[in-house]
Amino acid sequence: MIKIAIKDLRLFLADKRAMLLTLLLPIPLITLFSLAFGGNGGSSDAKPLVLITCDEDKSPASKKLIAQLDSLKELDLRLTSTDTATRLIKKGDEDAALIFHKGLQDSMTAGKALPMELIYDKAKQVQLGILMSALSGNLMRFAGTSSFESKAIRQFDAQNPGMDTATRAGVHRMIASNFSGPGSGKKEDAPLLKTTALEAQKENSPGLIQAVAGTAVMMLLFSVAGLGASLLQEKEEGTLKKLLYAPLSPQSILFGKMLSANIVSIVQLLIMFTFSWAVFGLNVTPARLPAMLLMIVATAFACSAFGVFLASFARNRAQVQGLSTLIVLTMSAIGGSMIPVFVMPFWMQKMAVVSVNYWSIQGFYDIFWRALPITDPAFLTRVGVLFLIGLILNLGAIQLYKKNILNIA
């Protein structure tokens, strides 16, 4: 028993690359997840939250309020129209928009509820919570705490014109605590900021889309890595040498592997989305079907190219297994399969664009959440990037195939 264990350990240590991948694989994954969930080594620096702002009132009061909010280091306000803001949110280009409706200054003067509204993408509930934490307290401070509180203070001052300054200030604080305290329970003490969720279709929840698209792409990457490794298996077993004696070109063998990997990838994605439709009620309407099929083909092309490229790069199956695990988990982590991209730190959101997962998941969000047509430029951009990734990886696989796979001893 001991001799067998020693023999296996010697074989394991003999393959240096496979050994390093096995032993060091957890380190980059721990690093990625720690950074994604805020373990940044104690640094408190954070990029300001971008907030689209719409000023329909265009009054001195609204302009002053916008200037005060823009002075906060945690916010980066960008002015635009309400129609533009709504369109950007529905397309997924922006997360939320703060709207100052007409009558803001008049409402502040009269002590009425302030016509302010925060519209947001319902698919990004977490970001809404972060944004509200930065907005609510500052809005209350800049807008005069509460319109009803301001009205009560003005009524008190009008009824008690001769009160000394110190007593008046104490009464003002008492009124403020009465209105803003957590247990006031007054019907008229309405929320200072109204929130409205925007969604293109109500049938598909963002959680369902995230689960289906994220899992489908990640599992497909693992599957195609195994399919690509069959090249190395055929080389190790001598099958590839026999195929080279057949009346066909060496490139035909590789192209056959690419074709089979694409077919299997498309079938696997179709099965996963059909299952999600039948069991979990994913709304696959006839209008969405062409865009879904195009995104499936683009995703399959990029993922299958990844599998063939990986097999052409590695020297043996053990290396394929180690590399595929490391690369697939890394791409899935930064690309949104495991953790939604919008909850990651800003710098990791920028890194996500190098991942196949990111472009595919965002494409499926375009279809099932934002209801973008197949001709929409944003959707076609994601499709184009996936085809470009697949083309680059396939060209790289052809070169590595000649160098590594066909080099049969």
Question: How would you characterize the overall build of this protein?
Answer:
With 409 residues, this protein is α/β, with parallel strands linked by helices. The chain contains 17 helices and 5 strands. Strands 2-1-3-4-5 form a 5-stranded mixed beta sheet, sandwiched between helices. The longest helix has 32 residues, at 206-237. The radius of gyration is 29 Å and the shape is elongated. It starts with a helix and ends with a helix. The model is unreliable at 40-44 and 179-190 (pLDDT under 50).
Structural class by SSE content = alpha/beta
Shape: elongated
Global mean pLDDT:
76
Ranges with pLDDT <50 over ≥5 residues? 40-44, 179-190
Count of DSSP strands:
5
Radius of gyration: 29 Å
Order of helices and strands: HHHEHEHEHEHHHEHHHHHHHH
Question: Helical percent range?
Answer: 55-70%
Compute the number of helices.
17
The largest pleated sheet is described as: 5 strands, mixed
How much beta, percentage-wise?
A: 5-15%
Q: What's the end-to-end separation, in Å?
A: 34 Å
Biggest sheet, spatial arrangement of strands: 2-1-3-4-5
